Amino acid sequence: xxxxxxxxxAGPAGLTAGYLLSKESVDVVVLEADPVYVGGIxxxxxxxxxxxxxxxxxxxxxxxxxxxxxxxxxxxxxxxRPRSSRIFYGGKFYSYPLKPFEALLxxxxxxxxxxxxxxxxxxxxxxxxxxNFEEWVSNQFGKRLFNTFFKSxxxxxxxxxxxxxxxxxxxxRIRGLSLxxxxxxxxxxxxxxxxxxxxxxxLINSFRYPRRGPGMMWEACAxxxxxxxxxxxxxxxxxxxxxxxxxxxxxxxxxxxxxxxQTIEAEHVISSAPMRPLVCGLSPAVSERxxxxxxxxxxxxxxxxxxxxxxxxMFDDNWIYIHDxxxxxxxxxNFRSWSPEMVPEQDKVCYGLEYFCFEHDGLWNSSDSDLxxxxxxxxxxxxxxxxxxxxxxxxxxxxxxxxxxxxxYARHVATVREELDHRYPNLHLVGRNGMHKYNNxxxxxxxxxxxxxxxxxxxxxxxxxxxxxxxxxHEQGAAAARETNGSALRLVPTRVVAAPExxxxx
Length: 506
What we know:
- This protein folds into 3 domains: 2-42 and 64-76 and 213-297 and 407-484, FAD/NAD(P)-binding domain; 95-196; 299-403, Alpha-Beta Complex (Polyamine Oxidase, Chain A, domain 2).
- The chain is globular and about 70 Å long.
- The protein is of the alpha/beta class and 506 residues long.
- Helix 3 (100-107) packs across helix 4, helix 5 (133-141) packs across helix 8 and helix 12 packs across helix 15 (409-423).
- Strands 1, 2, 9, 10, 11, 12, 13 and 19 form an 8-stranded mixed sheet that branches. Strands 7-6-15-16-17-14-18 form a 7-stranded mixed sheet. Strands 3-4 form a two-stranded antiparallel sheet.
- A hairpin with a 5-residue loop joins strand 11 (250-255) and strand 12.
- The protein is built from 18 helices and 19 strands.
């Protein structure tokens, strides 16, 4: 089989690329390893009529192009939902984003005074050029608030010390948010006036959301792509990508649902697959230096324990971050609060308890029954359920959910980029795992959108690595400005500004 473009992965990036290429009558095929679900980490899983996410996915972007594409794909099924989230710490619940006066009141006069003094000290004597997460956040909030509201949860998420996590991650996830901006927002809440560039995404108070979860968006996108002639092959796990330097074409090898080897020829490959296995499966093989860099990239996995309970109206937040180190759960989702249609029975609620782990560690290898029992026990301990409330449950494991931002990740990614750009000009890396970049789905989509522009123009109009975490293109100099304003381009990227959420989000 031969095609113009082969796309690895049917997540937000892969399906965005497939849909846009199909609109331009480009021959395209999307290869997805999952035999059932599209959407990747943005899929919605169904269990006995109950719908639940793999992580939470708010639909709000600073990019108008992304917002318009969401509307185009799913014009009649997007709800506007209130944003509500809290932190559980020390037996108490705190609003998140932090409401300084509430937080200081609940901490008590003595601790609050120390927190304010710690913040003032950080403002007067900040760590110059912070290198790790702890230094970066302490500069913004002070050391005491860092230890109270950031340290334990972050280390639970990543399974490593905050001193081992790159400052890049903090800068990417919470730029624009500090104690000062939180106080300002508490006094004068920010209002969205149509200019997305001025919005701090962590402080938004509403967002759009598909009636039956984010998977609804990507199922609709897949159907629209297929209606335009694009092909979607489910249960196809890519094993090798071989590049012919003479013809410039690719042979993409994969296994189908029966485990039989298949091959497809393509002029371009768009990959949203994890960078590490992709690079190690390239032929001709990359250099030993690049292979070592790829093999050094790390991932954090997680699992969701979905519980169905009798509705005691215990909480109505979208999610609650669990900072208490006495329990293993990291976050609790309330799927009825995302959309009432996620829960088909009015007298029931559906919670998702998220456990961050590494593949094949003790938690990952636990049986489903043990994990459900653990989730029930911890939900009671937190105070969000009572013993007789539980009805049913299931477990979903998610590999490579989060690219790890350790001290060396940026150097390893740069090494990989350098060789791939030089040796494989028609290989396009997009999305979270494709670029080993902790992003949200709007960033993943924008990298795909600009990658499509490059393919249609048959030249590198855009450097996809200049898309920042708000799905905005970071223009560089007069030449880039001329490109951005060129008549051939349908997308008009804007300049880099703030970055999104602190906590893991899909």
